[in-house]
Amino acid sequence: MSIEEIWNVTKILFSGIGVTLEIFILTLVLAIPLGIIVAILRNSKCKIIAFIMKVYILIIRGTPIMLQIIIVYFAPYYLFKISYDRFLAIILACVINYAAYFSEIFRSGMNSIPKGQREAAYTLGFNNVQTFFLILLPQIVKIILPPLSNEVVSLLKTTSLAQIIGVTEMFSLAQKQANYMFSIMPLGIAAVYYLILTFFVTLLFGKVEKKLEYYS
Fold first, then answer.
1. Over 70: is that where the pLDDT of 214 sits?
2. pTM here?
3. How many Å apart are CA 35 and CA 117, to the nearest integer?
4. Mean pLDDT across the chain, nearest whole number?
């Protein structure tokens, strides 16, 4: 295969990175706050609310995300004759899935902070907002950072499943080019792209983790 062909394939796959990053970033922006809400509700003193959240987490964690994507996109049509954008469907499916995983990470972080620290902060004159953001949040973030980084890297690779419902992103372009050229070279280039993106995400989390080393 010539250098020109490799360069052309590289440019084609690079055009799909935009969609891959859109799915990744939008899912993160929506799933993280939703995960925090679910974690808070999961710890609710209201047993009904806590039970509903527990069932939601159990279902999401117990079924393949591929199946969830298919259900999110096709179920509205077969049940209510409603169809909607494929890109929106993949975002909804990823947000619903990763919010469940994030919620358990956040909940473990929240539950790991001794109650005495909150009481000590009140004694020193901190209000609720100051106590949470200045005392508790940095410690929670430090605790949840390693498992959270694993899930974020997993999300980056999960974007490739968008092709299931026909969303054209980097990996689906690689597959099309591989079939067209009868070569695994496009898939190899896609693997390099994913590796580079994963490297930068891991590097970012590593820098944040170093910034939080002050908090024990």
1. no
2. 0.89
3. 24
4. 90
